[in-house]
Amino acid sequence: MSLFLIAVTSILLLNLSWYLVSDYWLRSDLAQYPRARNVTRLALVIWMTIIVIPIIGMTIPYFDNPLGRGPWGWLALFYLWMGSIFFWMIGMGILGVPISVYNYFTKKSRSRKHGLQTKEEQNNTLTRRKLLRLALVAAPPLIVSGSTMAAVATRDRLNIYTKDLPVVDLPDDLNNLTITHLSDLHIGMVTGRDRIERIITEANSLKSNIIVVTGDILDQDLQYMPDLLETIGELKAPMGVYLCLGNHDKIQDPYRWIKKVRGAELDLLLNESVIVDTGRTPLKIMGIDFTHRDNNNFTFIQKAEKDNNADNALKILLAHHPHAFDAAAVMGIPITLAGHTHGGQLVLKDLKGNELFNPGNRLFRYVKGIYHSPQGHTLYVHAGSGDWFPLRMGVPCEIIQLRLVPAQSKT
To answer: The CATH number of the domain where 322 resides is what?
Structure first.
């Protein structure tokens, strides 16, 4: 059985398990409220229908997935549900099943000891344990529905701004040179053609000297390659548009992805470099393949270094994973531009905007914004221009124009 069928079967079984457990609890815990029980069970069936139709569609060859044509809110609801159902099933298993067992034995014990209630009277009591089980049934759809509304409301939010990027020993003639940085477009079902076209238009309107896209340009499905090629091909900058490879670009068929991108004459830098003539001090822009391994970063950067040479060129590294900065700093590269982290994706903040929790801090050494090595080398980590997951919280999509400025010398 293929990995895809195993995944789809597992998703179906997970959803079916949630439905059967939920339906059982509704029938038993709301037995004395038949009207409420029937309404909630109907809502459960409707919810499962909404969720299961696209899952079944995935298993039928050449089936036109309704998520691709339906409203974006349905797509968001489906993705959010798939992202949360596993954890809710764990919660139901940890809390709900022991509560049922405890409730069963304690009821029998009380009945034998005191004879205070008949079985019918016990069934008609809406205990705190029953309310907790009902809450476990209701919480996932309610939370996911609320998250879907939040995702729809914030879908078009896009921060566009200019930021000074300090560069150690910046040549005077490159002072105020501008780079529009895009990353993590994830062109596909979640980040559709309409959003990408807006991003491209806004990026071009900044009129930077250079535009770079640091990976995860495609979400994963190669059927969206025409959208990628047509929209990325519209990016324009006088000193060029340069791309590097991200992990999502490699999911389905990396060789075909690379072939199509290069066939469209887009400047993909894959462990290689290009010399950009600025009129005075040249730029050496390097791009590397995606990797999780620090040793690979050294190897890839070395290949890119050897690819071209120009005396006194200012070196700029494009790397999807921000951890490449450590290798770049050791090798004396002044500027590294990266993405991958989405800024943490789901960030909790207080009313003043201070971060309370950012999952990116648990996963990455560099999460969002500007970082400096002890030697003064600079990294910018992009929060992402698009999405693979339909909900962002506390860290909206961005287009950033980086303006090179001299780093302040330490005294």
So the answer is: 3.60.21.10
